[in-house]
Amino acid sequence: MTFNGAEAFVATLAACGVDTCFANPGTSEMQLVAAIDRQPGMRAVLGLFEGVVTGAADGYARMADKPAVTLLHLGPGLANGLANLHNARRAGSPVINMVGDHATYHLHFNAPLTSDAAGVARPMSDWVRVAKSPRDLAQAGAEAYAAAMEWPGQVATVIVPADHAWSPGAAPVAPRPAPPVPRAPDAAIGAAADALRSASGPVVLLLGGRAVRADALDLAGRIAAVTGARLVCETFPARLQRGAGRATIDKLPYFGEVAAEFLAASHTIVTCGTEPPVAFFAYPGKPSALAPPAAKIVRLAGMREDALAALTALADRLDAPAQPADIQARTVPAAGERLDAHAIGAVLAELMPAGAIVSDEALTASADVFEATRGAAPHDWLTVPGGAIGQGLPLATGAAVACPDRQVIALQADGSGMYTLQALWTMARERLNVVTVVFNNASYAILNLELARVGVQNPGPKALAMLSLDHPRLDWCALAAGMGVPAERVDDVAGFRAALARALAAHGPALIEAMV
Ligand SMILES: Cc1ncc(C[n+]2csc(CCOP(=O)(O)OP(=O)(O)O)c2C)c(N)n1
Ligand SMILES: [Mg+2]
User: Which phi and psi (to 5°) does residue 186 adopt?
Assistant: First the structure.
């Protein structure tokens, strides 16, 4: 059998176990489109904007723990997808991008779509490779897979010149072995054990990355049982497995001064899977580091080290008991009268099925929903680790493609949702089990708070208009209907409960527009 470069590239990715492509192609990618078409077992999912494609690849990766491949159109198409690649990179998600480019000899003519595609890729990729020949494409594919799988995951981008893609004489290459997972040094385990044993005040075990998966969290809970440590999750975890039956864990608050207050009494902070906490932004006169200056900070393992192995070794070293200190009970708070974030969280806690996957881009609503759902049936909670909004709906899309048997729930702030609402169309086309709850507050509410927090006094109407989504008010039911997703609008708690029950019972996507 003879292969052109594109076919050898795609066959190599398939041999590595890549079976899903999120795509938004153009003319320079037509050979790749044809190669995917001919590759058995490779699913192709069209996204109508590149930010949907890259965000979906991130959501897929967080749930599947392996990469999907994206298909993007030269430098400009890649550029449209960069913000969600930034989020994927901060999440430690394995993602492979295949970016078509002009034929090598055509670049010289400076045709309209000519750009420095590798230069566009670099800031939001951990690894970039321009294929050098038709035969080299397959090699680049195998290398990209290995790079993407570097623990816990990286963004790997291959630039595919069109003439390399269409030229014959290529052949697939064998997958490279996955790189070994770096271990935290023994000295770090010893230092953490000593610090936890000898602490003369409150101790925090600050967990992030892979340390907030269920198995690691169980170990952390057992360590808490022997040390009295409080389990705290980083503010924007990639994938936190929480809920009834799992070790109780709090999340570090978003606002710097609230987070600093939360940590103020800490004598010792041991970090695992994350770094010592810092404020999301600088504010005039406020510190950037959130831990109290006198606290002892000990690094058990970083995001790129094996958190599970480190926690296992630490639990052994400390003779931790078999059970976590505090196991979260199944609880449902009272919803209250008004339809607000707490009420929506309370109803979710009541109705969310076990194994649900939550994509949280609810912003100002997030903290209350998170708190109200702590005793929900066990579920996965995905956030925006890179802070670039427009991730929520694409992430939910990718998670649903990775986990067709699980219910996905997208908690979506209205302003952030507008960046990549085209994801709704992909949900409809693929009949994905995603229930989207839009928090329609007709506002960039968080920025109204931030305006005051950075010290702006008496903002004028021009400033306030830049933070308002009124005039015209967005009609999310109409937007969803236009993309094939059934939707309903609710403005009270009973209405929300009924709408959520209906949406969860139905197959395929649904959207609930909550007027909050
Ligand atoms: C890519 C990107 N662009 C802009 C911002 C700045 N930003 C942060 S929050 C926000 C508005 C959020 O409004 P909404 O999503 O409606 O949430 P709410 O504050 O109303 O809860 C903006 C524009 C960002 N974080 N990322
Ligand atoms: Mg809003």
Answer: -55, -40
Encode pLDDT of 92-134 as tens digits.
999 999 999 999 999 999 999 999 999 999 999 999 999 999 9
Distance 487 CA to ligand 2 centre (A): 18
**Ligand 2 geometric centre to CA of 89 (Å):** 25
Q: What is the rounded average pLDDT for all residues in the chain?
A: 97
Residue nearest to atom 12 of ligand 1 (CA): 444
254 within ligand 1 shell (Cβ under 6 A): no
pLDDT at 1: 77
Backbone angles phi, psi at 367, to 5 degrees: -60, -45
Contact 375 CB / ligand 1 (< 6 Å) = no
Query: Could you tell me which of 486, 478, 447, 479 has the C-alpha nearest to residue 464?
Result: 447
Q: Both tokens of residue 295?
A: 């606290």
pLDDT digit string, tens, across residues 170-190? 999 999 998 899 999 999 999
Is 392's C-beta closer than 6 angstroms to any atom of ligand 1? Answer: no
Instruction: Extract the runs of DSSP E, i.e. beta strands, from 184-341.
Output: 203-207, 230-233, 240-242, 250-251, 268-272, 296-301
CB distance 496 to 339 below 8 Å = yes
CA 113, chain centre distance (Å): 30
What's the token pair of residue 31? Answer: 């050979």
| pLDDT, tens digit (0-9, with 9 covering 90-100), for 32-59 | 999 999 999 999 999 999 999 999 999 9
